[in-house]
Amino acid sequence: MKRFTPDAYQELEIASAAPEKLIAMLYDGAVNYLDRAKENLNGDLMADGESMGKAISIICELMGSVNSDAQELTTDLRNLYAFFIRKLIEADFNKDEKGINEVISLMTDLRGSWLEAAEKNSTG
What we know:
By secondary structure, the protein is an all-alpha fold. The chain has helices spanning 6-16, 19-39, 45-64, 71-94, 97-123. Helix 4 (71-94) packs antiparallel against helix 5 (97-123). The protein is elongated, with a radius of gyration of 16 Å.
């Protein structure tokens, strides 16, 4: 009998998730990495840099996944993601936990809005 590892379960969850859930998972992943970066902000610079880099990579993935059908919304969302990246680079350089918290707060709000809109779209 084949045993599934936690990574295998995660891969299965990702492979079978609806697009709306995948976006929420990306937000969750970015916030998770930002929390890790905060923990290492004034300590383990390698761990801080790795976590910050992964969070920024996820934000870049989110930026690339923006649907360009709604032009104004697309531009606003891409600008917001670009702001997140600039803010995180600045926060990492200055060892500014407040800047990271600002991005976490905005991403958490955005995740909630995304799931609310996806739910309305699927039931509407």
